[in-house]
């Protein structure tokens, strides 16, 4: 397993649409494992491949509480089959939008189809926090961040703060060519 660097907004790579994987093979399983390790150490409850610079339709989630046995979900090529008319509001955050949270309204219940880590097609009905997390991570696959669901004013305030924090952060040393 390897830790992967998490891309932080604003970054144009987070706005790109990811491509489907042909199959869940050893390479994709390794990516899923690396993503889970990265997510657990961040710490977070979900991570999408574009957040670690891989433009493939792969997401991982784990809603287990601290001290509980991990219950990771690994999804490739997830697609929504159905969403409820009923909405739910959750205060969302994101590893690519650190230290910022906002209420986001999404369908309360969903049905999703995906390939699991064994390349088997699975259909899953989800509600509550799990439904919200799946939709949040699926948004990343289409280049959408949770802040894109906010008003332009709120989104721009958060983006300005993130840009200011990026500029203030120490830059890694670079070797110079002669």
Automatic annotation (TrEMBL):
UniProt: Fe cation binding residues: 94, 136, 140
Cofactor binding note from Swiss-Prot or TrEMBL: Binds 1 Fe(2+) ion.
Keyword Repressor: no
GO terms assigned for molecular function: metal ion binding; peptide deformylase activity
Enzyme class: hydrolase
Spans traversing the lipid bilayer: none
Assigned EC number: 3.5.1.88
Keywords: Hydrolase, Iron, Metal-binding, Protein biosynthesis
Catalytic activity as recorded in UniProt: N-terminal N-formyl-L-methionyl-[peptide] + H2O = N-terminal L-methionyl-[peptide] + formate
UniProt-listed GO biological process terms: translation
Cofactor(s) recorded in Swiss-Prot or TrEMBL: Fe(2+)
Positions annotated as active site in the UniProt record: 137
Function text: Removes the formyl group from the N-terminal Met of newly synthesized proteins. Requires at least a dipeptide for an efficient rate of reaction. N-terminal L-methionine is a prerequisite for activity but the enzyme has broad specificity at other positions.
Family: Belongs to the polypeptide deformylase family.
Name under which the protein is recorded: Peptide deformylase
Source organism (scientific name): Hypericibacter adhaerens
Native organism taxonomy: Bacteria, Pseudomonadati, Pseudomonadota, Alphaproteobacteria, Rhodospirillales
Gene: def
